[in-house]
Amino acid sequence: MNTRYPRNLLIAFFAIFCIVLSGNGLAATARTVTVSAEGLADPDSPLYEKDKGKLIDDLRNDAKRQVIEKAVGMLVSGSTLVENYELIEDRVLTQSAGLIKNVDKWSEPWRGEDGFMHILIRAEVYVSEIQDSLQAMSKTSRIELLKQFDNPTISIAIFAKDAERDSLVEPERSPIAENILMEHLKTFGYRIKSEEVSDKLKLELIERSSLNNQADVTLSATQQKASDFSITGEAKFKSNSVTLQASGVTITKYVLTSWTVKCTNNHTGENIYVNNKIPQKKSWADEDAALADIGKLIGNEFSKDFFEDHLMAPSRIFNLELLGLPDYDVAKIVKKELIGLRPVLNVDLRDFNSDGLSLYEIEFSGSRGDFQGLINDTLVYPLNRKLGSRYFKLDSAQGGVVRVSFSSDDDIDRLMEKFNGMPPASLANAAPQRLKGLIHNEETMKKVAEINPEAVAQLAKSGDSNASNAIKAIDDF
Length: 477
Prior knowledge:
By secondary structure, this protein is of the alpha+beta class.
């Protein structure tokens, strides 16, 4: 029991904590995400022989579909998206007019040596609208589309301080407020950790990284997460006492002078809820009155949907350290390839060093599970498929840093020929239906069959002549 502050003062703070969180601060909003993507078109298609304007229109439309596909990939696993691509394309990917809030930037279109027309796009997408569409599809088609997540872990730290004491005195933890909040969150099935436990786990992770010769890796507290969310609160109170002249009885009430409540998504480091607005006309005289307020308001504070909405679209920013890139032009073309990959929402080449590490900052979407496996399957694998060999190798993926090494015996000219001449790495994991709508040229289909033979083989089985001829050419080679 905290003897410095009266027990009803601490409970009063928690009651106010509940009141503000139950207000419009947690109201549902249309969440958006900014996504970069690459659009493709087949310039040799008979569709464009007489109308080159249609080629550019289709190129831009494909870029918009890829932006939406990346947003869908935040909510749906890659395998589920590919298996249900036709349904998702019909109901979601083609609805860019209602799902893209605005396009921030277009690149100039260009024809590549790989046979495709290319264009880059950066756009803001309504994730909440896409989630609603997928949920509706799941109900009508009886297909479980949305990713399933484990119950999140939440750490809590609530502090209170006497506003009339020395400003240098540190605020003290309120176990009463924390315990009441913990018990409520546990009814959702969530796991609760104290901030002390979370901080200890973060330090242990950093120490293990140092012991494993990863001392040069920069680890941040938000990236080395020990809980999915952190709720913190701090309040200052002062007491007002009035002595009634008639009876001589002194009445004391406690009022709030300042406060801050914050909830952080530790996957992204984003403060998903911040409130420092002081509730007006609230004071408490005794413990029973404060407990009564808590009983009425406890069900309206942080809801289960509030946390799960933020887990439904997890994204994280990490540093990709690429060791061994021989040339700046290679580093730039790797950035272009990364932009096309489905889980990569945005990428920036921060630093190039031909004698050491080149640094990319990547915003990446994916599950909270096997991060190393996800990076290997969705980033390293398609790049190697494009080049036809294991040029890229995942060395480590710890916290906020992924280290990949690049090794090739090719000279720069031969290496650039492979990068420019083969289809984009993004097509290595593309669904057969995307390839069918995209490729109308047999030679281009042959190239795609080299990096994604499974999808082209499925097209061949469905009767696509370009795919059949591409598979036959590879088999006869």
